[in-house]
Amino acid sequence: MFRGLLFAAMLGFCLPAKAQTVEELLQQGDQLEKQMKEVDALNKYKEVLKIQSNNLTALTWASLLDSREGDRQEKKEAKSRFFEEAKAYAAQALAVGPNDPDANYAMAVAMGRIALIAGAKDKVAASKDVKQYAELAIKFRPNFGEAWYVLGKWNYEVATLNAFEKGAAKMLFGGLPDGTLANAIADFEKCRQLNPGFILNYYDLAIAYKKNDQIDKAEEILRKVPALRPIHQDDPKFKANCKKLLEDMQ
Which segment of the chain is annotated as a signal peptide (predicted)? Predict the structure, then answer.
């Protein structure tokens, strides 16, 4: 009997751990993202994709978290690797769910990140995609605050293109749709209405007001930030940026 028990115990040690289900991994990824452990969350979503390569939730989150992690990198080459991977995941997500608002949003974010580090030609090309996918995300979910933010960012970036970038846009595409500071501000304000806890939006809204010579409005927006609770991993940094911007304006 003792030998039987010993054998059973040894067999237990040899058995592989029970494989986690897709649902369990998705729940863990969601929890880790909420805990601001975004690299760990990204790895969980990648585990899902090893099991189920067409899982729309995992593809979308892998793209978004790659975009965020790329933004944290210091070197352009490292940023580019993350952003291109984010774009690839978003493209897969769109192949699975072309009308999914989150998939379209993920592509808009990835292309926006690519545009911010690209040269004039590639920046203009990526910029067209940012607008397209942000507008599709809004079409499929009109109350999508973060998508309104991306559209606002697009308007701001186009409104502030330098002469060389405007020349590239005209040469390549016959120009870009008009992007104005007024539209950027309206989009950022729409985002604030729909998602008042999205801290990054406050920073870019204040920048747009400042660029539009509405200093009082910029300061008013920035003074709201200290009361906001960090939700995403980079929110403490964004709050610090808002504080510094307000100090520099006074």
Answer: 1-19
